[in-house]
Every structure is written in structure tokens, then in C-alpha cells.
Fold each of these.
Amino acid sequence: MRYDTLIRGAWIVDGTGAEPFRADLAVRGERIVAVGALSEATADTVIDAHGRYLAPGFIDVHTHDDTNVIRTPGMLPKLSQGVTTVVVGNCGISAAPVTLSGDVPDPMNLLGRAEDFRYPSFEAYADAVDAAAPAVNVAALIGHTSLRSQAMGDFDRPADEAEILAMRDALRKALAAGALGMSSGLAYRNAFHAPQAEMRALVAEVGAAGGVYTTHLRDEFAGLIDAMDEAFDTARQGQAPLVISHLKCAGAGNWGGAPRALGKLEDAARHQRAHCDCYPYTAGSSTLDLGQVTDEIAIFITWSDPHPEQAQRALAEIAADWGVSLIDAARRLQPAGAVYHNMSEDDMRRVLAHPLAMIGSDGLPNDPHPHPRLWGAFPRVLAHYSRDLELMPLAEAIRKMTGLSAAQFGLTDRGVIREGGYADLTLFDLDTLEDVADYARPIAAARGIELVMVNGTIGYRAGAATGERGGRLLRRSERLSPQPTSSFTTEETP
Ligand code: ZN
Ligand code: CU
């Protein structure tokens, strides 16, 4: 048999959580066509993978790469980690269906400038992605704050009936055109005043279309548990599966809260389909938010529009230099970006290791001094947390970034290695694998990712992009049921 590509002798970690097994794998066109002992086979490209691990390409379920997949289609921060699909549109902010002029509402400014928002429909965005031919696949959520930006002139109030109808209509069209679902960012000031009734009306559209609802909770601090309750209730009423974004216990006063929060998630998951995503770091990052300014944790400024010279400095130092309070310094720096060291290592590890948690980087690609998660999240889970600290077996760590993710976001024929599946693949050397990016030097490719294939195209090899970009827009192709996932209920029912 002759194939396009043959990968010989790798340890295959198939994305289901099953033990790694040694096999050859053959690709023809965009698909995996054979897995097993293929010693007789030949191919145009043969890769000797003895001693290496071959996994499904990683799925970054939490990204803000919306405009970057078009503006910087090489997508090196993700491709170099072994990521083959990014889910954009998280935290309530998406590039579509949006057009903007003038000031970009917070935190939509994380995605770009006004001129980067030029996709009045989901189709327009999908066409732009396909025309850009990014190196990774792109699947897209519609952001609630983005819907608000098109339907409302001011954000510090609930949407009225006509505005809700306009948002529902825009959302319905985007879902019909292939959007995966809707995200919200209720903690941000431009969404915070949306009451649960507004969310329910929108999530009902998501449920009706068989999509997924993801939410950056209204409160990740002392009010975490209530905010989780709100999310479960909204999703249940709307008949939509739920993903809680970057689940965390933020703020020094809330450290140690992970067991309770995870218990809550498990309880909910027995009655409805509910999961979370998380990144393997104890600092968060976003726009600079006055509500999060405190002297209890370290806060670093990554960018500032009025004071670019203060970037890469601690907020406390800036305030001391200026002889003002932290909050006054923050006010002067806005709009700005920040890294908040606001989690405990123990809480973060518990969330990361939980069977309902997927890996999502939440990387911010437009930040000039980004949080290291942008370049390092996936190798860090595998190298630091699985290999070095043995927080979870390799196969489980891989499942949380492939099979589980594809299933929860409805990405058919991806996230697992099997005959007939798409050839999204990542080959790595577990001995040398290392996330290199850190807070001081965040722009750095990981070591140990040897080959990345997207839809059968080798996009990354020997530490560099090949220049062949195999990604495209992935439209939602299956209806997600809001019922609990069987794997979890059986695991937990004695
Ligand atoms: Zn968020
Ligand atoms: Cu986010």
C-alpha cells in the first residue's frame, strides 16, 4: 500500500485516555487511513518516530485568536505547541458578527483595533478565515459582549426587549452558519449588567441549535459558587451544554476553594452536561480591571495606551514612582493590560487534574508582553505537570486537550487517533519536551514538539514552521445534547 505520509513506530496516545501503544500510522489526503503494523507500506513521506509519542493535535478550547488567525495566519504561538485547532470567541468577545468604529469596548480591545472588526456576519468571518488559510483549524463561538456591541449603544444596563430580539436574531443566524455556540464574559463591566433573563433568552437559541454555552463567570472571587449556580441554571434552562471558562478561585481570600468548586461542578454534571477549561498557571491576564486592583497579590502591567513606557513593570512600583494609590495609578494607565498573580498552586492543580477539565490556553496574542500561557500552556501540562510532577498520567493529560475537547465542542472526527479521523497530529519527544516561555521571557517556542500535522499537511517540523498551512474554519457539524455525559455519571455512580 502506498500512502502520502507514514509515521513509523511511535507510541500512540489516542486521545481517549487509553494506554499508549506502539504502532505505525498512515495518512492519505486529509485523513488517517491506517493504524497498526504497516511494515510493508510505503509513502511519499516516511517519518521515523521510534521513541516518540504521537497524539491527536491539541485543541485549544479557550483562545482569543479571532483576528490573529486572519492577520497572522502562521499562528506560531499555537502551532509550535502542537495545537492544531483553536476555539475563538471566548469570554464574551468575538470578531463576528461585528463591525466597529471608534473606541473598541473593553475587553473586545484584546482582539484588535476597530478596523480589525469587519465581519458583519459569521459567513463573512468564515470566508476571511478560509481566505487567510491559517496554519491551524479555527472553530468559533459568538461572544455575548460582541452581540451587545451591535445591538446596544451603552452597556451599563440590561438589554431591553427589542435589543434582546436583535441579539437573538444575530446569534441564530451565526449558529445556523456554523458557529459552535455562544460565550459570555459576565465579570467584565460591559456584560456585568446583563441579568440572567438576558442570558437565558440568548442561551435558549444556543440550546435550540445544539450548540455549547461557555462562560467567564460573573464572579471568580468570593462569589464564585453563586456565579457557578447562575451558569448551571442558565445552561439548564436553555437546554445547552455548559463549559465554565478558566475555572479558578481568584483572590487571596478564596484560596483553598477548589475542592468545593469542583464538588459543585461534579454535582451539576450528574444532571446536565457541564465541564470547565483551565490553564496551567497561577496568574491570570486580561485588561486592567479596577475591581481587581489590590495590594494582596502581585499585578504586572503588560501594556498601557496612555503610558506605554510603564509596560512590564509592577503596578505597585508604578504607583510608588508616581506617589499615588494603586487604584489611581491603575486609572491613569487604562486602557491597559495586566497579569494578576491571583491563584494558589494547589487550587490550580486540582482543577487541572479534574476529569471534567479541558485545557485551554486563554493566551492573548495581541499583548506585546503576553502571559506565558500563549506559547507554553500545552507543553507545560505534559512536561511539568504530567511527566515531572505526575499530577496525571500522560494519556489523561492528552485526553484533556484532545478527545474530551472535541466531544464537548462538537468537532466531529477530531481529537482522537483512529482510522477515518482527520490527520491532525502532534509528534513529540517526552524526554526533551519543555515549555520555554516564562513571565520574564514569554515569547518563546516550546522544545520537544517534533512534528505537527493539520488536515494531513505537515505545518511544523524540526522546530520551525514549514510554510504549508493546512487549517480552515470548522463549522459545527453535530448537535450537542445537554444531557450529562455518560463517562462521568458512570464513573461517579457506585
Ligand atoms: Zn475570560
Ligand atoms: Cu479568555
Amino acid sequence: MCGIVGYVGHRDAVPYLLEGLHALEYRGYDSAGVAVRVDGALRVCRCEGRLSALESRIAAEGLTGSPGIGHTRWATHGEPSERNAHPHLDCNSRLAVVHNGIVENYADLRRRLVADGHHFSSETDTEVIPHLIEERLRRGVAARDAVREAMRELEGSFAVGILLADDSQCIFAARHGSPLVVGLGKEGNFIASDALAISRHVESVIYLEDGQVAEVTPQAVTVIDLEGREVKIEPRPLTVKAEEAEKAGFETFMLKEIHEQPRVLWSMIERHVDENGEINIDFGDLDSEFLRRLERIMVVACGTAFYAGLYGKLFLEHLTEIAVEADLGSEFRYRAPKFDQDTLIIAVSQSGETADTLASVRSAKSRGAPVFSICNVPMSTLARESDAVFYTQAGPEIGVASTKAFTAQLAALALFSLRVAEVRGELTAEDKNQLLTDLRRVPQAIHRVLLAKEHIAEIAEKHHSGPSALYLGRRFNYPVALEGALKNKEISYQHAEGYAAGEMKHGPIALISEYMPVVCICTRTADNLYEKMISNIKEVQARHGRIIAVATEGDRRVAELAEDVIYVPEVREEFSPMVNVVALQLLAYYAAHARGNDIDKPRNLAKSVTVE
Ligand code: M6R
């Protein structure tokens, strides 16, 4: 979604702002802008569309200045346009504001400010913020207190960067519900909504908490709470490396991230399983006694992470007697789930900033339930609000369509399930060792799928032009069918539906014709579920559907039924989703490629959905 960068120091701010905004492009945006201080005044440059348009305009105007703030906007209130792009100004252009999040009470605030004579020039919720600060500055309130008091009036979620024409040495940052960091560097100090944006220039960062305001100068950072009390926060070394956010020779971030999956899974297994087969997971305060008496787990997540959660439900139920539910964050927060302090909430999120997942976690915590999160981004809001965190450590995921974060979530949920089953005495040492041996085969199997990418590209090129596609899977591969369809929709824009194959006769079979590609996940299972999947494939074949099968290497039966087959190495069924989904990621990838789409930045999507 939106991105914020700010710089204060003795150099021109513009190159830092543009570099930071480029690093945030992956989050999704539809307009962008910067404001810098020049000779005691503010100069603003904004435009609709990509950053390249903003760069051309900045170059044409010869814009330089310092300090400065910049923003990429993903439209919520008001269409994507130059006048709605940030930064927004007060009546006299003496202060500029960039904002992520939503000001929920903006309509009331705006009415009041207009009645008091303030002039508005956009449709955004953000524009109330500069006017709220302005009215205090006019009364002679000091800048720091004006910012703090204005923040107290806002309802909703926000991360804000503020630049003042009257102060050549300072920018402000404030946070409530949306992430914001302050970065400390040799060339100056920075603010950003994601540390990745400033990672080349800072050695350490301060993660602001909700309700904190930072006054950032080239020499120092002062953090206060909304009461004006100073808060001491120790800067932490920055762990994200700038080169992790580069394409490393791949044509897109998504393709790079697809290829990183064997390494991500291999190192996760190495980190969490020692040479004696002991599984090490930090459960924080959730002790073994709690895990033994657990009767209920509720998994909450959104999008791809929710499909990982569905897999977690299946695997936990498979290994333990615990009743497990998986729910969408956006639904969980508004229903009346029954749970108590003996229910564990598992929140799954790549970013750790997804608004609906966070709201679900907060609602569960307020009712006493402990929260275990599976998260990729260190120090994210979710990680900080959870009782224990399993960091997937997949590295920054820049492609908007999630790939390596998903397989890492599956592996994390598998390890979690194994450990919980072991602690509860529901898994024999022999079974555990066999499962771990089989899990260790997964990275190599994924590697072999990657080697088949040219074949998968040919299949994608053949089938991408149809209006719609159906994805079918069963049991552990039902979430994979959902995820395969989501990947296809997200980046190729071909409509796709994921279905439990057994549900096909209850409706979607009506869609099948010679124009409908049907992707059937039909890898071998230890029981008769494979045969059931074969029956489903025959039903599709009888209606002339165009079958693309994902099948186990050497399976000739599927080849006789399907128009195209993607063979994957044989792995234990429980772990086959981590392998099979890679075939579907590549299928979606090459369909999008054939359609000429912007794969890393699909239209309308944001990497992390920080507003409801
Ligand atoms: O950061 P999160 O894992 O919480 O994000 C959840 C979803 O927004 C995310 O998975 C989304 O569905 C992606 N676009 C999937 O590719």
C-alpha cells in the first residue's frame, strides 16, 4: 500500500527520497510525490502514475532541497490523481504531510476545519492532518506539541511524516497502527514505512510504537508519547540487507523469489531441526503444559497466508487431537468465535502488518487467548504483539504475489505441528523421524520442479488466453488449488477458481467446456484419494475440458487423460503442497509473462494491506 520516506541531513534530499520510493514500489501505488524545503519555503512535486513520471517532472523542474519527505499513494479516499497525491499542505504551504493508513474521523474534522476557514484542495482523508497542525502553530504552540496534539485528534490508523518550512533541521514522524521506522545513518537521518527503503544508508533503526512522535534532526532523534513525555528507545542494528532487495540477474523479483524456495526451506529445517532430530521452536511463554492441554487452535490470516493456514489446520488435525479452525482475518474479527485462554490463536502473515489479521489478533488477545505468529518481517507489528513468533526468515519478499513466503509458511506450520504433536505424546519417535526425513527431501524436489520451468512456460503459453481456469485439489492439496488459482488471477488477470475436487459436481462442472483449462493436482497419495482425483479428471475429460495435470514423476495414467502434464518428484503427500505449489507459481508466472503483464506490480494490488 502507501509508502513513506523522509530525509534530514546536509545533502540534497531528492535522490534519497526517490531511491527510497523505488524500494517501496513493490507495495503497490498509483501516484507519488515529494516535498523539500528550499530557501525557507516548501516545494512540492506530485503526479499520478509511476515513479518514472515523477522523476521526469522533478528533473524538468530541477528540484533540489533538504530536508524532504516523499510518498507513494495507493488510493483509498479519492481517485488516483495529482491533486490527491501526497504530500498535502496547510493553507499557507508552510507544512507538508505524507500519510499511510486511514483517518476514520476525517469527515467530522474536515467539516470543523472548513467552518474555521481552512481551505482544502483534495478529496483525501490525509489533508485534515496539515490543517490540524497548522491551527495549533497559528496559536503559537511549539511544533513538537502541535504535531502531538494533532495526532491525538485522529481516529483510525496512521503513519505520518511531516516537513516544516520554518525548520531547516527537522522532520517529524508519528505512528498509530501503521509501521514507521526512524533510521540513523552517516549521511543524515531518515524515516520510512519499511526499513528496506533506507537500508543502504542507515546502520540502525528505531521502530516507533503506536502513539509515539519522533522529532528527527541530522544529529539526534527525540521520541515522545502523546502526553509529551520523552520515551527512551535504543536503536537496533538493521538486519535487512539492501542486496536482498535486488533481482540478482532474474528478470523479476517474483522469479527470483520462486527460485529462492529450496534455500529458504533448507535453511529453515537446518535452523529448527538439529542433527539428533530435535525440533527447536521458541514458544515464548507458551509452555509444554499449555501445549499438552490445548484443545483448540484457531488460525487467522488473509489471502495466501490464509491458504497456508488451511494447510496448517489439515496437518495439525492429521497429527493431533486438537480441534483446529482456520478463518480469514476479515471475517474472524466480525464473528463471535468461542474461545478462551486455553485456545491458541495462530496468526500467519508475511508482512506482519495486515490490518485484518492484526485486528483479529487484538480481539483474541483482549479475550485472553495467547497468540503464536508465523511471520516473515522482523519487528513487524504482528511479531511485536504476539506471545511467541516463528520467523520464517525467507528474506524480503518484493514481488507482490507471494511465493517463497507461502512455502516458508507451510514448512513453519509443518514443523510447528510436528513439535506440538511430539510434546503432547501424539507422535512416536519413529514416525517423527520418518516425517523429518521426508521433509528434508522437499527442497531438492522443489529444485527439480524449477528445472522444468521451460516446459511449464510452454504449457502456460498454450492456455493463458482463455477467459477462465479451474484449479482442483484434494485434502492437503486443496489449499494448493486455492493458492494456484489466486496466483493466476493476481498476475495473469485470467479469472481462476480454486475448488476442492469433490465439490466440482456441486456446481463448477457446469463451466467445463473445450475452452476451459482445468488444472488438476493429482500427485500420488498413500490411500485411495489419488483414485478419486483420477475420477474427477475423467469427469473433466468427458466434458472436453482441457486438463493440465500436476502428477508424480513416472505416472503414465495421468498422462493418458491430460492434455498437458507437469511432473513433480514424489514426496510424502503431507509435504507435497510445498512442491506442487511451485509448479503452479511457475504456471501463473509464465501466463502473466505471455500476457505481457507487469508481474512484480500487478494492477490494483498492494503488497501489504494495512487498511481494512
Ligand atoms: O502480509 P500478509 O501475509 O499478511 O498478506 C496477506 C495477503 O494480503 C497476501 O497473501 C496477498 O493475498 C498476496 N497478494 C498473495 O499473493
